[in-house]
Amino acid sequence: MPIFYLDNKEVSFNEGETILQVAWREGIFIPVFCFHPHLPVFAGCRVCLVEVETKRGRTLVPSCATQASEGIRVFTDTEKVREARAGQLEFLLLNHPIECPVCDAGGECDLQNIVYRFGKTTSRFFFEKRKRERKYAGPFLELYPNRCIVCYRCVSFYRDIAGGDDWGTLKRGNETLVGPLKPGPLESEFSGNMIEVCPLGAITGRDYRFSSRPWEHKEFNSISPHDSIGANTRVFARVGGPFGRGPVITGGKRGEWHHILRVNIRVNPDVNGPWIDDRTRFTHGFVDSRDRLKEPLLKRDDTLRAVSWDEAIEKAILGLKNIRETYGPQSIGMLTVGRGTNESAFLFAKLAREGIFTQNVDSRPTYGHSSLDPVFEILGSSISTAVIKDIEESDLIVVFGVDIKNRFPLLGLNLMSAQKKGSDIALIFPYLDKASGRWATRHVEALPNEYEKIAFAFTKEISDILGISVEIKGDFLSDKIDREELKDLADVFVRAKKPLLIFSDDLPYETQKALSLASVLKGESAVLYLRMYPNGQGFVDAGVHPSLLTGQRPSAFLGKSTLSMLESLKEGDMKGLILLRVDPLSEFPNRDLTEQALKKAEFVLILDSFETKSTRFGDAVLPLATFYEEEGTYTNTEGRVQYAGKILDPLGISRPAVEVLKDLLSGFDVTINGGPKELFESMKEENLIYKDIDYGQVKIKEEAFPLEIPSLRGIKKVFRTPLATYPRVKKIGTLSLSEIEGEGEFVIHRGYRLFKSRCTTRSPLPREIDGGVGLGISPEDAKALGIGRGDWIIVEGEKGKVRTPIFVNEYLPKGVLEGVWPFTDFPLNRFIGIRGFGWVRLKTTIPKEAK
Amino acid sequence: MGQAQDHNPKGGKVVSPLGLLKGLSITFKHIFVKKFTVQYPEEKRKLPARARWLHVLQRHEDGLERCVGCMLCAAACPTEAIFIIAAENTEEHRVSHGDRYAKVWDLDLGRCMFCGYCVEACPEEAIYMSDVYELATYKRDGLILHKEDLIAPPGSSPKWAWSGFYRKEPKEKKPLTQGLRHLKEFEEYLRGTQYGEHEPKGKA
Amino acid sequence: MGKPREVERFFDENSSLEALVRRAVLITRLDRLVAWSRKNSLWPLPFGLACCAIEGMAAFFARYDLARFGAEVFRFSPRQADLMIVMGTVTLKMAPVIKRLYDQMTSPKWVIAMGGCAMAGGPYNSYSVLQGVDKIVPVDVYVPGCPPRPESLIWGITKLQEKIKEEREEVI
């Protein structure tokens, strides 16, 4: 290993390392402003100057940009260096208003810290400081150009990492102005990272604005509750009494001294790397949402009335037992989606299979056509075969039918970095929007009703090229599909060294199966199977699945899938229903079926944190704590088990799901004892997938950052989370496509918006970011109908009519409509069938005045 | 008085009454000495100038609050007796100069040790410690004083928190002319150099 | 011109028996009398634990002279005291003693918590300090200060007297 001399000490370094990196590793602190370990080097601030002895004498060089070389002598703390740094800091402070008392960054500001340690005590600048007004920088950020020291970190992040182009610098020299280049909200879904990238308080977040000081709040390790990527976060919360300790005058009520202040990055190189998305960062207000259920409710005389926990649990058990005794255990269905901890999923499955003795339990997002699991059948386990980091190493990536920007925004960063490395990325989706345009190199336009056909045709092409005969039935080679393009894609897929297929679990059953098969046919390829719901993977692993038992063991007895459960309820074959954290009315397709099923059910037990559209159908409603109020483990979409702790006390008398399920189980003579750790251990005994996972490691496994960074906010530690081990026995299955329903004027499908989901709509967020309510329509259709954003329209289909406002989605192709999920306010899921689309007519437009 | 020391309570020598009288004379003399007791509720002693009792949140001359809600007093407080929630000033609702003001400024007198660190920490001279010491209450909750209880009435003139003890005497602000003088020198300096032909930017 | 008007009125008002009674006899309810006598003869049990006790002593002696409020009879036996003044830091080790002494006091009894430590633990957020004496005994008056001035304590005692004055209980 080559060596050089750092402050007369011999240090070794790796080829290509900079002096700064070596010095930090050796524990010598060199101040920096423009340098950030995850950003390109800029070398503009010049506070990292060090003295290097060369043949021509000693000279000052910026250490962040100077590579170490054999035998050089570097001095980091000489008179000359100190003088240079102090002078540089004096220059930086020339126009910096010393308004630390009103600045949000006060107390965690790099400029404060570094000037305190290296700067001068007085300024010789007696002229008036340059003054600039505060500037609007999107719905989440507040920009103070006055405080900016023009380190270019934010610009570097926004343009190079996030791929945005509406943030940058204006003017030059002393007048340089960093900020948004366009009026209106920022385009990028990663803009919040700039708050943490900024070394001082020039960019501050609206949610945290003025609310606290770094020494006041507590820090918790948590993960993102919004998508199945499970980005690691640090949550800052003010907990406890108003005076820190002592008697809590207000009796532990929620309020300004017991709430979450902000969510920051926690570096986990395997999952989110050093960045998080805006949804994760800014959506934390749902814990105090107005429609939280605060106390148990029981239905009496057709109205829900608040009761005590004991009474509610007793009545819930009694209701279920009555149904079981009268109609048999299989007449009770248990429905959920992947929301909540692994432990609660485990107990939910236990309640089904060991408490009530019903096999009808499902947690999959769409109805599915079958109780079987498409991915399990082909890939041997219902799990991705790739991990998130594999995106960056794949040379061909096919993203099939997933709106990456609005559903899994963090994958956008991985895809962008893959594209920069030269990967070929194909997007199969109805449209290619600006966010996908940052990484997609190919685009196959696929209307929502063609997903199955395209998937089948794609698999067929692959099997043809590879010469493997696969039984594929069905009429999928329709004329509308561009077969040449698919053939080309299949050709590239087969020739690629390490291709990757990305699709999600809310696609129709056949599509998932065909894509899994495509991956099996091409042996080197991998699948990134994205779960629609945050802990969808954990729920399937725990056995909340009609055909998979705990630990993904295939069940001998097939239970009913969600669709057949709802149909049986409608027909009257089933009588009881338990809903855990799901609002089937507004989340599931085929609203009319769901509504009739809920109406017909004799006993509906709802366990939920929020009051939803379905709550009124409940005979007993048990309030649960939300994500930030309960502790437990979560499994992300690649099978990584992560821990999130309890931060706040549950609102009202709501309780964690695990506690409630334990109570329900005790009514069925199943006793579960012990705290979270014991529960996890007992889960491991049954769920062999998690058998190698150490609870202590899940809870906290931190490593020091590769560079010992004394100053930079938030990135001093690196966290890692363990991967569960899944059995992988691949096999080539058969495909058959049932008939896909006909044609119509417009095809409507589920669309997603970043800030539209169960938790985000319940969080107080700025109004500018709504991005559309109701029905999305293509610009051509809007023009033809003579309507625009904010107009109302009547959508007519076979099932009836729905009146809804519209917005124009500029990327939608002609003839395609987009209903924004979840369908809380406008029941557009009435038209959307179990395959995720439906046919409608647009009947009448209502002028703006009439609404 | 040596005999008194030999006194035996169980009978013995008789004590001379002289000693008793001598002692009582001092007692009687005090009948004529000026009364020492402070008749407290009616008569109050004047406290020293730097007495530190109940806090007062001061106002600027224009009636706006001095406090900007920076939470430094809460940070300096050794007993964690101060609790602040800051909020943003708007054009319609302006409470202090600058962006931020204290929406909530609570003081837990039950914890406060009247050390004055908050006054020290305040960058805005917003806190002043008055000489109100009659603070007893019946309820523990009553000891939590809010901003509304502590804020000085509008129109009151701000006082220097204290000076000369922890804090140096408030320096007189540099008169503006001094800065201008420097500017002039700077200008002259510029004129003397090769760049002198150019007019320097800024106000001349 | 006759007699001056004031003199006339004096004779008018005092001529009846009623007026005589009104002038010469004090009528009150028994409970009020009891409360009045209780308030003016408080017998404190000074529970000096720390520096507040020094200020307490100052309040008891000549300069501030608590005797002016009838509260000069200090009793170090709880059986004879009816007002416990907790002055200073209550450690967890001392807390049972305070509790026991309070229990030994005869009813009616009152407690004054003097100073930050007795009220809420003061600056000592420590494993060894009780965070407020009101966690073990009911406190009637809290006197803030670190330590409070003697005046503050006297103010507290007068507040307590007001409270006692208003107290009503069946007296037989």
**Largest protein interface?**
B-C, 30 and 33 residues
User: Percent helix among the residues of chain C?
Assistant: 40-55%
**Number of H/I helices of chain B:** 6
Unreliable stretches covering 5 or more consecutive residues of chain C: none
Distance between the termini of chain B: 93 Å
The biggest beta sheet of chain B reads: 3 strands, antiparallel
The radius of gyration of chain B is 31 Å
- β-sheet strand percentage of chain B: 5-15%
Number of strands of chain C: 4
List SSEs of chain C in N-to-C order.
Answer: HHHEHEHEHEH
Instruction: Using the alpha-carbon principal axes, give the shape of chain B.
Output: elongated
* Mean pLDDT over the residues of chain C: 86
Major beta sheet of chain C, specifics?
A: 4 strands, parallel
**Oligomeric organization of the protein chains:** heterotrimer
**Shape field of chain C:** elongated
The number of helices of chain C is 7
Number of strands of chain B: 5
Strand content of chain C: 5-15%
In angstroms, what is the radius of gyration of chain C?
A: 22 Å
Helix content of chain B: 10-25%
Secondary-structure blueprint:
The complex is a heterotrimer of chains A (851), B (204) and C (172).
Chain A: E1 3-6, E2 9-12, H1 19-25, E3 49-54, E4 57-62, E5 73-75, H2 79-92, H3 110-118, E6 135-137, E7 141-143, H4 153-161, E8 167-170, E9 177-180, H5 193-197, E10 203-205, E11 218-223, E12 232-238, E13 259-265, H6 278-282, E14 297-300, E15 303-306, H7 309-327, E16 332-336, H8 342-356, E17 361-362, H9 374-379, E18 396-400, H10 404-407, H11 409-420, E19 424-429, H12 434-437, E20 442-445, H13 451-466, E21 472-473, H14 483-495, E22 499-504, H15 509-521, E23 526-530, H16 536-542, E24 548-549, E25 553-554, H17 562-571, E26 576-580, H18 584-587, H19 591-600, E27 603-608, E28 620-623, E29 632-635, E30 641-644, H20 657-667, H21 676-686, H22 695-699, E31 702-704, E32 717-719, E33 735-736, E34 746-751, E35 775-777, H23 779-785, E36 792-797, E37 800-808, E38 816-820, E39 837-846
Parallel strand pairs in A: 1-5, 16-17, 16-26, 18-19, 18-22, 19-20, 21-33, 22-23, 26-27, 27-28, 34-38, 35-37
Antiparallel strand pairs in A: 1-2, 3-4, 3-5, 6-7, 7-10, 8-9, 11-12, 12-13, 14-15, 14-28, 24-25, 29-30, 31-32, 34-39, 35-38, 36-37, 36-39
Chain B: H1 2-5, H2 17-29, E1 55-57, H3 72-76, E2 82-88, E3 100-108, H4 117-121, E4 127-129, E5 144-145, H5 147-150, H6 176-192
Antiparallel strand pairs in B: 1-4, 2-3, 3-5
Chain C: H1 5-14, H2 17-24, H3 30-39, E1 44-48, H4 52-60, E2 83-87, H5 95-104, E3 110-114, H6 115-120, E4 141-143, H7 150-166
Parallel strand pairs in C: 1-2, 2-3, 3-4
Helix pairs in contact in C: 3-7, 4-7
